[in-house]
Amino acid sequence: MVAVVDTGVRFDHEDLAAKLLPGYDFIASDLLSGDSDTGRDADANDPGDYLSSADLANTALRTLCGNPASTHASSWHGTQVAGIIGAETNNGRGIAGIGGATRILPVRALGKCGGYDSDIIAGMRWAAGLSVSGVPANPNPAKVINLSLAGNGSCSAAYADAIAEIRAAGVLIVAAAGNETGAVDEPANCAGVLAVAGIRHAGTKVGYSSYGPEVGISAPAGNCVNVGVGQPCLYPFINTINFGSTSPTTNGYTGINAVTTGTSFAVPLVSGTAALMLAANPALGEAELAQRIKRTSNLFPTDSGLSACPTVTTDGQCNCTTATCGTGMLNTAAAVAAAIDGNALNPGVVISLPDSPVKNTTLSLGSGSSSAAAGASLVGWHWSQLAGPATGSFGSDTPSTTFTAPLAGDYLLRLAITDSAGRTGVQDVTLSVLDAAPKSGGGGGGGAPDLASLAGLATLALLAHRRRHRDHAGRP
Fold first, then answer.
1. Measuring CA to CA, which of 3, 63, 155, 318 is 20 to 30 A from 341?
2. Total H helices, total E strands in the chain
């Protein structure tokens, strides 16, 4: 079972109805909710998250939504995400969810213009079986929580505390890196969350996906390549959806003329994989799930026409590295195999770097802390340079090697290790090379702390006044 914290779902969708548990609506604001209920309630149906002309004429709602310039149609976002995870299989209609027999627990926390952190956090806690004031206990706690949502900013104390409690309950949280072509968004940038970046059909970072060291894994997020007047989207997701532009009408599926792309849709691929792993081995904890998903990923491909991330093209594309897009590309079959047999893991790669490396000197690189899964041994090593101010030279492809950098600057290096079972593990590191060895220092003194810096650490989190924006408006 996977909890989908989102806009709610359409319970009458024929490809989802049999897979849905009752869920709960955590939207406290009646303006934001857009339904006929008052406050939080047990109805997780999605009434539509549209903004109408009447909504824009409502001063209170306009203020709540940050004074939007125009109306917009309903996204049916939660229904789309739920379908990727759990649409019925082998029923001769629509699509098949990646999670097979996985069931969905809908948790409604996003409304007409996003959602409050307070509602999202309450929904996350309830989904994990933790207590929420004024809300009945959840009779069906989930072991996986899907967060296809994101908001700007670093991880707040409120999210950090809730995530720590949820993880302590043994629940895996999977969240979208974001669609900003920039730093990973909250709550994906919180410690302990499995953050998911988006890749194109070719395996390189899709232009809109956010990226950074917080990312744990990458998965397909959809991309269109040639969006234009009268042209279809070439690589969209085909999702369960309702066809109502505002309120719900008939249900169906998106098609090639719908630009259904975004890291929102990469996340449920990972959440559904985690659910399959738990079906294979219910004893796995949340840390074991995350580790095995990451340790069974596929190596990122390289497009010769692109730079290594974080250097991006004008449309945001780049070749993924383990420092920017996680350990690799999601491999569901390998992850489920590793859930059954913990020995079926790719090698764990650890690179040791020299202190104060200087240009035009022979630098020593090592991998002595790397390891193979039980029953396998490390048999092959390949060192390479992905980026840098100039092309350096390596010694032999052995566990320890040398590297010479002709110019000072940052060099992005990669080590790929193969084990006796033919599995490959990869790690990328940045080696910062100096012009000359630093001089030895003497004396020094502490002095008073920088008060401006200290003030930056004392940011007040006004939880009830911060909103999350849905993470589904991806660009091609």
1. 3
2. 10, 18
